[in-house]
Amino acid sequence: MHYSLGIDAGGTYTDAVIIRNSDREVIDSNKALTTYPDLLKGIENAIDGLDEQYLKDVRLVSVSTTLATNTILEKTGYPVALILIGKHSLPGSTPISELAVVRGGHNLNGTEDERLDTEAIREYVLKVKDRVSAFAVSSYFSVRNPDHELRAKDLITTLSDLPVVCGHELSQDLGAYERGVTAYLNAQLLPVARHFIDVIISDIRKRGIDAKLMMLKCDGSVISIEEALERPIESVFSGPAASLMGASFLSRSDTCAVIDVGGTSTDVAVIHNGFPQLVDTGAMVGGWHTKVKAIRMETSAMGGDSHVWIRNRAINIGPRRVVPLCLAAVKYPGFKELLKAGRTPSRFQLAENIQPTKFFVTTGKQVRGLGEYEREILSIIGEEPVSINDIFWKMGKLISPDHIDSLIQKRLVQAIGFTPTDALHVLGEYTGWDGEASLIGARHLARLTSVDEYELCRNIKKEVAINMALSLMGYMFEGVERQAIEKILRGDYLSQFRVNVPVILLGGPVRAYVEELGRLIDAQILVPEHAEVGNAVGALVGKGIKRVEILVKSFYEKTQRSILVFSPEGRKQFATHQEAIEYATKLGNRLILDYMVDSGIEYDDIDITVRSEDIAMEEEGGTPIETRMVFLGVGVPKA
């Protein structure tokens, strides 16, 4: 009997599942807290909780992770130099510190617009090669002709031993600067991906697991680990992709909407006829517009571990994530006594970081360039929780919440506070940790409102359900202002929203929200078995999917007509449209098959469909002046 192992390293939890290959049933699963900054310990803990008798017979391991996304968001990627070739339209300001623009590039038809300035590239590479870890190159209209990118790559390789990433290798979409950004971010992630994958390989080999290793991409498909090492940028947002694929698999629904309530956020996406809806313009991550094909999703900064705080008697939830009180009571002995004795600030002092339930611990991370005041505060915050009041008495002077906030942003301090997870503990609807600590915290906060602790927690639960419904309907009604949708959800009308596809809920405590969500929207709401580890299931059940676009276009030079084919392999010229189509068809199929086989998928398990769109003019006698061919290959990896 053979098995497959799925792993999802999320923001709060790292999940692991084992699926039996013969009938695709989930037979074992485990959750462990994600460990920062090194994810390895959390992964080890998640796998350690699985039954060892299955592990020795695992033949396929597939992983999804927030590592790439977090690296970009936290600006902790490796230093990279970006070389732009040609007449790029640059934004007014760019955070890229090592950037050079040199002459060269091509035009729309793939002919050279200007000679490549190899001497400028040589001078720049020799100038910066000792202070960067990789180079990224993007040339104007390289999707029509990648010659200048390839020549630049060859030159850089001869001048340094550093990796070089070209824009046309990652995207065939127009937008030279965005392709450059995609290549730049991908180059930043190369060492990060290498380290992460090396530790995964080391762990599974240590356990005696001899298995094929794959990774989930942000479009819901899987790639071989070799390609994941070359294209780590494609794993951004693989977490939401994993939830979508996992929900579809667990609910046996090829068409459904998915609401994934994680620790930090709530993500909504839709799968239709087995394929996720994608963002055509490319994923946005950390303010960067990339050319990475990712699932279309609606995300809100409210999850199970979002901070609940009170100001002016009103409940605020998020956007920051904190350690729930119920979990802190388990991690830190004596925390409940500290919580009981907590001082309630005056109503005028109340702010996000000044709450009777807010505490702080150090993360142990080191950083340079701190001011004297920040260093003084950090010297007081240790491995045991302290409050703002504790810090004040030890320092003997007023504490600025802004300085605490700065230390949290720099990930030097971890906050502890009341959360929606605590509210569910108080209501008895989730019992994963120490519910007494949650109740103590709820009583503290209730004193700052006009309700008791139980009504407070019911109101918090309702707000989370409203946020789930708002995220879902915001996705469904793309382009409609969220304020209008929220007005309807909160209003007392003789009508409500209806969703015509099943709505699948994923996340640890989501069963607690089914009834509340059902009051807000008319839908079939399902919580499948193993919903709490749906992302790890999704990491494992993603299909191998490859899209290839090839453009066949008429081109006139003087009075001579020729046909050009633009593909990932470059530009090729033909005498007739028929010859060009035959070449494009063979090339598209070959590129799909090569990719799939390299990803570990057998020929017999690959299905390829081709969609063609023609633009024809009567003056041309009906022969298309342009044909866009889209090849879609689908296959299922097997152990």
UniProtKB/TrEMBL annotation:
Q: Name one GO biological process term.
A: glutathione metabolic process
Segments passing through the bilayer: none
- Please list the residue ranges annotated as the Hydantoinase A/oxoprolinase domain: 179-320
Q: What Gene Ontology terms describe what this protein does at the molecular function level?
A: 5-oxoprolinase (ATP-hydrolyzing) activity
User: Pfam family example for this protein?
Assistant: Hydant_A_N
GO cellular component term, pick one: cytosol
Q: What are the residue boundaries of the Hydantoinase/oxoprolinase N-terminal domain, all occurrences included?
A: 5-157
Cited PANTHER family: 5-OXOPROLINASE (PTHR11365:SF2), 5-OXOPROLINASE RELATED (PTHR11365)
Q: What is the name of this protein?
A: Hydantoinase
Organism of origin is Methanolobus chelungpuianus
Origin organism lineage:
Archaea, Methanobacteriati, Methanobacteriota, Stenosarchaea group, Methanomicrobia
